Please model this.
Amino acid sequence: MKKFYARVGDEEYLLLDNSFEDAVVTFWLWNAMRAEKGELQPGARARVMELALAYQQGIIENAEISLLQVLHGDELRNELRAYFPRPVKQATLNGLMKVVG
Model:
């Protein structure tokens, strides 16, 4: 698993996922679902970057990592699958997330 810094609105996360592409798509879809459910302000800006880049740009410091909520890409994708159970949406979701199986 690779480590990414993820932020939406004022919420910051440590996101663990297989690749940058998987992390970005999954985080974006997860936050779109949260906005649809009313858990997140519509129009909130989402950002994902490699953790090392966040350090390099001074966005986060080493001591702050332990304070971040940890998200696992696989768990977010499972949550998305449960939220979008219909076959058409499921096929689209799988295609967007590049999930095999």
